[in-house]
Design goal:
Blueprint: H1 6-46
Length: about 50
């Protein structure tokens, strides 16, 4: 198995980019959930 194989490189690129996309997507969802939770927390604090 050599890295000169274009099919192997193509598969590696697909796996690599899919992994990057899933990490980015998960971070986006987590950041939105975090912002929503802190927003609720601040709105609850404003009532006092």
């Amino acid at each position: 198995m050599t890295l000169n194989n274009p099919i192997l490189l193509q598969n590696f690129d697909k796996i690599f980019y899919n992994r990057l996309n899933t990490i980015f997507f998960l971070r986006l969802i987590l950041s939105r959930l975090y912002i929503n939770e802190t927003g609720k927390y601040h709105s609850i604090n404003k009532n006092y």
